[in-house]
């Protein structure tokens, strides 16, 4: 439901001032709505959650997001507001089913077009490495919507890894096409005895700290998609810093493009720096 509709529904239940605080939209993951409730509306949060439920038959539970994604598994604290007290759901994105627990795994439904963008860049028979793979949304979308030969995905959260496996089965993807590895990228990459045509690094908070692990898996013309958070006037500087790091690590790269892949705060963006090893 968009915010205008929600505000209309709440017209008789909230004052004009209160309605001005209602957030314009909310995330939907499967049958779960994840809403943001400003402090000014804390006393009305159940009422708002019930309005969301009443207006959206596909939504069965409403949870409130509390703070940002945090910790080593990048999970988000959520608080139940209305409907079923169930945090497990199945989300459908671009024809792919993704089962997950929203309290225990990172997942953003907002990356739908970014994942398809990457899938379209994959050339026939590429071998792709997805780091920080979570419940495997990138890997699954690539398996279904690209001509990749093989995809290897690495995730250290055991719960997300378990769901990634379920998702492989749920989407009938052969286990030799999508290989799911559980563990720390820094420990798992050295065990890989091959080079990759494309490497995806969706950990915007700190992916640059893992560039050194790529040394054994990149080759000439490998493509790297590295995510970062950056202010709009810093995109080029952030990319320059990455280029410098790659050079120092012994695999000089060129920037093919910088793409906005969502907004994380006012004037702050999640960007994807597309790099090619020279
Ligand atoms: C921002 S989330 C992205 C998840 C997934 N790619 C997606 O788009 O939904 C980052 C993920 O990386 C995992 N992670 C963080 N550090 C890691 C590491 N050193 N090795 C493996 N996985 C890691 C976290 O557990 C989390 O699931």
How would you portray this structure in words?
The chain has 278 residues and is an alpha/beta fold. The protein has helices at 3-9, 16-21, 45-55, 112-121, 137-145, 158-170, 185-188, 235-249, and strands at 27-29, 32-35, 61-70, 75-83, 88-93, 96-101, 127-130, 150-155, 178-182, 198-201, 223-231, 253-265, 268-277. It folds into 2 domains: 3-86, Met-10+ protein-like domains (GMP Synthetase, Chain A, domain 3); 108-277, Rossmann fold (3-Layer(aba) Sandwich), CATH 3.40.50. Helices cover 27% and strands 32% of the residues. Strands 9-8-7-10-11-13-12 form a 7-stranded mixed β-sheet, sandwiched between helices. Helix 4 crosses helix 5. The longest helix is centred in the last third of the chain and has 15 residues, at 235-249. It binds S-adenosylmethionine (SAM). S-adenosylmethionine is lined by residues 72-74, 106-108, 111, 132-134, 137-138, 154-157, 160, 184-186, 202-203.
Might you state the CATH topology name of the largest domain?
Answer: Rossmann fold
Q: Distance N terminus to C terminus?
A: 46 Å
Small molecules held by this entry: S-adenosylmethionine
* Highest CATH level, the class of the largest domain: Alpha Beta
CATH homologous superfamily descriptor of the largest domain = Vaccinia Virus protein VP39
**Number of continuous helical runs:** 8
Total strand segments: 13
Strand content: 25-35%
Order of helices and strands: HHEEHEEEEHEHEHEHEEHEE
Low-confidence segments, ≥5 residues, pLDDT <50? none
Estimate the helix proportion, in percent.
25-40%
Roughly how many Å is the radius of gyration? 20 Å
Number of domains: 2
- What would the average pLDDT be, to the nearest integer? 95
Alpha-beta classification: alpha/beta
What is the overall shape? globular
Describe the largest sheet. 7 strands, mixed
Strand order of the largest sheet: 9-8-7-10-11-13-12
| Assigned CATH architecture of the largest domain | 3-Layer(aba) Sandwich
